[in-house]
Design goal:
Layout (H helix, E strand, L loop, with lengths): L8 H15 L21 E4 L9 H5 L5 E10 L8 E12 L8 H5 L5 E4 L13 E2 L1 H6 L18 H11 L23
Bound molecules: iron/sulfur cluster (SF4) (2 copies).
The site of one iron/sulfur cluster has 13 residues, from α3.
Length: 193
């Protein structure tokens, strides 16, 4: 059952809001003469930190608009002492087509390697729609405009790593039948250490 009030109460409340809004001074944003003060986590453009990208393809697969284009090749890295050479993915192409992007941020969420970031920069309109395809160099340049991460919320939950570390530190030592450190075997010939 709804709240039974004085007849016309809702109308009066509504009109009061209208009156308040009508008498409030309006603020016109003076853009482009005055740059807007955007929240630091505004979704302007996506920046790529190329050295963090492992070419795992998760971002491209998760993008609902299919507007991330990635090409790569494998390179052999010979590690001294290793039995076999290692394989490494080398990024040849990483493009985002901002004419298709809907700024959902799924690619940034999906990246397990912190290679993608939001930048609040939004002034990259083009006369030719094809120029909205930003290649990896262009995406890399946006990194300079990525704001530092916000400070931790003092009332927030501690990070999982922190709680795990605290729990580990609080747990009693290993079972008694296993020595904490392996027994030190004396060096043949003896040492003076
Ligand atoms: S923000 Fe969304 S639409 Fe844009 S590239 Fe990322 S996943 Fe695709
Ligand atoms: S999800 Fe991250 S690491 Fe994987 S391809 Fe995309 S940007 Fe690179």
């Amino acid at each position: 059952m709804g709240h039974m009030g004085v007849p016309g109460e809702g109308l009066a409340k509504g009109l009061a809001v209208t009156l308040k809004t009508m008498t409030r001074r309006s603020h016109t944003q003076q853009y482009p003469d005055v740059a807007p003060e955007l929240p630091p986590r505004s979704r302007g453009v996506i920046a790529l930190l190329e050295e963090n990208c492992t070419v795992c393809m998760l971002c491209a697969r998760e993008c609902p608009d299919w507007c991330i284009y990635i090409d790569s090749h494998k390179e052999e890295v010979v590690v001294p002492g290793a039995t076999r050479p290692r394989q490494r993915n080398v990024l040849d192409r990483f493009d985002i087509d901002f004419s298709l992007c809907m700024y959902c941020g799924i690619c940034i969420e999906a990246c397990p390697f912190d290679a993608l970031y939001w930048s609040p920069e939004f002034e990259y309109a083009e006369y030719d729609i094809r120029d909205l395809l930003h290649d990896k160099d262009h995406l890399g340049e946006w990194m300079a405009t990525v704001p530092p991460p916000p400070a931790h919320d003092p009332n927030g939950e501690p990070a999982k790593e922190e709680t795990a570390a605290a729990r580990k530190a609080a747990t009693p030592a290993r079972p008694v039948d296993r020595p904490a450190t392996p027994p030190v075997r004396p060096e043949p010939g003896g040492g003076d250490a």
